[in-house]
Design goal:
By secondary structure, the chain is of the alpha/beta class. Helix content is 40%, strand content 18%. It has 13 helices and ten strands. A hairpin with an 8-residue loop joins strand 8 and strand 9.
């Protein structure tokens, strides 16, 4: 190789090499993880989910989450929590506004969702890892994916599924939700099944009653009186029904079984109106 050709090759190599310090300062993009934390504590949380929470730079969750895990021997660093994303959208003030002025509430929720997503995008741009801690399984009635991250850039997030209340409840019942006595299992809620508002529609329930199935109703304990009344119109009074309270909590889990005609009276004996999954069908026997 002659001298001129050697100089040319070296010059080209220098042009193609990175400028000193530039690669060091280039910021790798961060990532958002939506993590299913299980129904109770670390015992029913996937090891991968626990590892992500451990190494995340920022956590979005209820301040009760570290307390809940500590009660079962787990640890979540509370100093990493930026804020509770659901309080801004589903808190008491938001619910009060929803009852008073639904239109204003919708605008209020949309504004806060945009604020949350803006925070996430800025934090990810800074190269940080964010973990949004969703109770149970975020893929089943998970407020993170349904509301907070609606329209969010999916290339920036990863979902880590968790043990859902339905899994823990079926384990407590020691029954499969689908078997030769049940053609399918339907996961729903009182409002999803009948529609919101006082003018509930029963056409779906009427159709379902013609088929052997298992109904799993989330967030329905507070509607138990109306639920039983509507079920009684299409199902026999001896239809098996169960309520699994605090599914997955080793120290609080309770199973109440009764036929349709008397389950409401059994539920009325307990104060809990939220953390209870209603199972209707042969799986509840």
């Amino acid at each position: 190789m002659d001298g001129r050709r050697f100089v040319c090759v070296v010059f080209i190599a220098l042009l193609m090499s990175p400028t000193p310090g530039v690669a060091d300062t280039a910021q790798e993009p961060g990532k958002l993880y939506v993590v299913g934390m299980g129904p109770a504590g670390p015992d029913l949380t996937a090891p991968r989910a626990l590892e992500i929470v451990k190494r995340a730079d920022v956590l979005l969750c209820s301040p009760r989450m570290p307390q809940r895990f500590a009660a079962f021997g787990g640890a979540i660093d509370p100093s990493k929590i930026a804020f509770d994303p659901w309080e801004r959208v589903f808190g008491k003030e938001s619910e009060a506004l929803k009852r008073k002025d639904p239109e204003a509430w919708a605008e209020h929720r949309e504004r806060h969702v945009k604020e949350i997503q803006g925070f996430l995008l800025e934090t990810i741009r800074q190269g940080k890892t964010v973990a949004m801690l969703d109770g149970g399984d975020p893929c089943v009635y998970g407020p993170s994916l349904e509301v907070l991250l609606k329209g969010f850039d999916e290339s920036l997030l990863e979902v880590v599924p968790g043990m859902g209340a339905v899994n823990a409840a079926a384990a407590a019942l020691k029954r499969p939700l689908t078997s030769e006595d049940s053609r399918f299992a339907l996961l729903t809620s009182y409002e999803s099944l009948f529609g919101p508002g006082p003018d509930a529609q029963e056409d779906v329930l009427k159709d379902l009653s013609r088929h052997r199935s298992t109904l799993v109703l989330y967030m329905s304990l507070r509607h138990m009186n109306d639920l039983v009344e509507r079920l009684a119109r299409y199902y026999p009074p001896d239809l098996p029904v169960a309520v699994v309270y605090f599914a997955g909590y080793p120290d609080r889990e309770t199973v109440v079984r009764a036929p349709l005609k008397s389950i409401e009276q059994e539920v009325r004996k307990r104060d809990e109106t939220w953390l209870g999954l209603v199972i209707v069908g042969e799986a509840a026997r």
